[in-house]
Amino acid sequence: MKINVQGDTLRVSGVKELSAANSSAFRDWVRGNIGAELKNIEIDLSEAGFIDSSGLGALVSLHRTASGRKGNLKLINPLPPVQQILELTRMHRIFEIMKA
Fold first, then answer.
1. Could you tell me the CA-to-CA distances from 20 to 17, 76, 82, 85, 87 in Å, in that order?
2. Beta strands 2-6 and 9-13: pairing type?
3. What is the pTM of this model?
4. Does residue 56 contact residue 89 with C-beta atoms inside 8 Å?
5. Which of 13, 15, 25, 44 is the most exposed place for a label (fewest CB within 10 A)?
6. pLDDT tens digits along 22-31
7. Which of 34, 36, 83 has its CA nearest to residue 63?
């Protein structure tokens, strides 16, 4: 995974999956890389083919982190299987989802 800072936004790319096996480490890694001056988080899901409930929990947690900084969490280019999970769980109503 890679981190890129653009203005007040932390962008994460190279996410392959978010599951019980890696979601806690992912959440902690992102939180560890968000500096005090950053408030928004963007997660590029264009390579993520799988997400489970633990992965959704990590995204909700990061959403709260961003909201606490008066920012937001954006999900970029989720693949169809991930988009389907977001819609089935109604998480697409919580997260801002962008197609770039």
1. 10, 21, 15, 15, 20
2. antiparallel
3. 0.93
4. yes
5. 25
6. 999 999 999 9
7. 34
